[in-house]
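Incident review: delayed structure delivery

Summary: a single-chain prediction request sat in the queue longer than the usual turnaround. Root cause was a stuck worker, restarted by the on-call engineer. No data loss occurred. The affected request and its eventual output are reproduced below so the record is complete for anyone auditing the incident later.

Affected input:
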Amino acid sequence: IRELERREGLPGAEAWLAIDMELQKFVTKRLGEEAAAAVVMDVHSGEVLTLASTPSFDPNAFNRGLSQSEWKALATNPRSPLNNKAIAGQYSPGSTFKMVVALAALEKGVITPKSQFFCTGELELGDSTFHCWKKTGHGTMDLVSAITQSCDVYFYEIAKRTGINRISAMARRLGMGQILDIELAGERQGLMPTRAWKKKVKRVSWQQGETLLAGIGQGFILTTPLQLAVMTSRLVNGGKAVTPHLTRQIVPYNAADPTAPDIPEFKTIGIHPPHLDLIKKAMAAVSNSPYGTAYRSRIKEPGFQLGGKTGTVQVRRITKAERETGVKKNKDLEWRERDHALFVGYAPIKSPRYAISVVVEHGGGSSTAAPIAKDILLEVQRRDPSRGQAKAKAAERRNAPATKQVKKG
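Output delivered after worker restart:
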């Protein structure tokens, strides 16, 4: 054996990730053994700080080789540990979709910020009855109060007037129903249906009742936790088309000290700024108004408050007979029949920096997802180095010795 040629190996470039490892550990621990996913994003740069999916598994087990029993336990686990739910889990967004419907209706001009509808607890359409989650109804609702209290009847009404094609178009502008090209394999597209889509795929015409279901984020609509985080980011960053990414910076070998990466310039998605301000106001009320559906999960610390939107998605059909005798509570149902729990949010309210989405499969309603999101948003803000530097400077100013000015003359 003789050496014909030799090429020395060269060190590769360094990849600096946006993932905050300590925050990732915190989020994973907070989700526990729930079948759940959580995504935290910087709303301005698109950096993904956390991308968590639980329950997880030990990838090193695949290196040594799995026994048949180990593989069976993973493959048949109903909580799907092998599925990266954050990018590949596809869920109906439920009421977290109501901001999309509101913006589509505002843009079309079918409502104004002051338009009101009266919620009796149900809406009749032909031979069908569409129910609000509050059986007795919410009474008179405008846009902000309808989002704050998550009134279904209000959104049935404006969805019917807006149409599924306009709703789907707005959703796509906000990052839903499409591949976002994050640097991971297995990302799923979700689905934003249109009349043409149903005609092509289902070979039947779109029905108006399906538009009403889309108005509350159910029916054919599917989205991923990553898309929900992107949607929230675009809602609160002034309408910029921020896209998510895991790689912060690539530093070549032997490069000088890396500089901070530039924040990319994102195009706007063309939504009227006052409409976005109205949505932020409503989301802030969801968490901070006593009437809000997430009031119990608010952040009380000054400067850390969050805004958000709860979501509950039915996974089983509730019959007319059950409505008459009383709908079963989630705690009385088998795990697989319980509602999915969702929450999207942002913080802080005055100057949004972080967006979050949390999905808990069969979590039994939004009251499961909102406390998780609260704890995560509080933690990410506490860990923010810029916030710490600002506090340190403020402390320096408070503790600085007083100076006495003396007039000369």
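Verification: Confidence is low (pLDDT under 50) at residues 403-409.
Action items: add queue-age alerting; document worker restart procedure.
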